[in-house]
Structure formats: C-alpha cells, structure tokens
Amino acid sequence: MKPWENQELRDYFLARTSDLTPNGARRNSSVLYAPFSDTGDVFKLCISVLTEPERQHMARLATGGLRSAFAQRRAFRRFCAAVALGDGGDLSEIVFDLTEKGQPYLLRAPDFRFSFSSCRFGMLGAWSATCEVGIDIEDDTREIEALALAREFFTGEEAAIVEQAASADRRSIFYQFWSLKEAALKSVGEGLPFGLDTFVFELLPTPRVVDVPGQFGSPGQFRAYPVGQGNFNAALVTRVPAGSIS
Fold first, then answer.
1. Residue 205: is the preceding peptide bond cis (ω within 30°)?
2. Is 146 exposed, middle or buried (0-12, 13-18, 19+ CB in 10 A)?
3. Which of 79, 94, 128, 173 has its CA 20 to 30 A from that of 153?
C-alpha cells in the first residue's frame, strides 16, 4: 500500500463515518457506521489494503457490487481497529484473524473485542477492551413475512408480540428482535445456527435480555442497546464478566 493511498483511505472514512455509540454504552464500548460507496475510486482504495487471500476471495464473488462491498467491509474493519488502537500506521498491516465460527479478532490486541455487520446501506463496527460485544444491522425496508418468520425463529412470547403489533409496526418490531438476537449471539462468539430463540428479549420500556443460555452466565451480565439511523435497524449487545456487574 502506498503512503498516499493509506492517508486518502483514512481521510475518506474520517469524513464519512458516524459515531453511533449508544449513550448508555459509551463507558465501555464504541460503535462506528459508514455508508457504502458506489464509486470506483473508493473501491480501488479499499482494494489497496487487502491481503492476497482476501483479493483472491473477492475475485471469486459473482458481481462487481459484491466485490466492492467485500473490499469496503474489510477496509472498514481495519479503519475501526486503527481508531480503537490509536494506530496511525499502514492500514494494510492491520489484519484480522477469524475464530472457527467466523468471529474476527486481532492477535496483536488480544484485550480488544470486535464485532462487525453490514446491510445494503452501510457497515457497523463495534469494539471494547472491557467486555464482549456483538453488533448487527438489518435493512428495515425489506419486505418479509414478519409473523411467519417470528413464529419459526423466536420464542412463543416474542412471536406473540410481533403478532399483536399493528400491521404497520410489525416488520419494524420483528427487525428489532432479530438484530438484538443476532447481536447477542455474536457477543458470545456464536452465529445463527446456535439458535435465535436461545436469547430472550423484552423491547419495552427499553430493550432488555431476560433469558440466556446457562453456559454464558446470567441475563444481568448482558446489556442491550438499539442503534438506529435512517432505513436500518441495528442493535449492540455487550456482556461483562460475572464479577463486573454494576
């Protein structure tokens, strides 16, 4: 990566990135959002930070749009890590490893936990040096069979909340539950195959974890926060060690 490309990419993200950290989570975590770009110049800049295996993976994607989104997601990961670590060096030298279940981590910064998510509008990155984090973003404009999906993937009580909602609100409520649940799974290093019904949430008066799988502690160790802007629905879930509950 050439020095001018490194600085130009940093400047691009600095100009386009928004801090969406929920107020209640600022003590121990951070959340950044960046919209996707459809310009070729940004795509080229993002490619400049990719490793050779990443470039090979990108080349196998079916369309130019998918390749551009992949490159931007990987560049955004590096930018978030640079912000978290206060690293002013070459972004191409910040390379994430993945756990067996696909969770990103940095060998060079083992105390930091990272989580990333994207939808067609943009990308979210979350991190913390004191607790586990999970972030999820969903395109709230997608037409879905909200009730049918809620009955398939949520608990009976949660599905009933979706069913009882006014028809105009049903899709939004579904996505609130979905983003919270996926964020919770990420906060414990799991993915969707573990089961969306393993974490149970209440939405009102504020999102709250009410039940968790026993191997991950107690509901009191988890905090849930809505993260919203525009046409997407997103959530942050954090998990503190048992001895750190306040």
1. yes
2. buried
3. 128
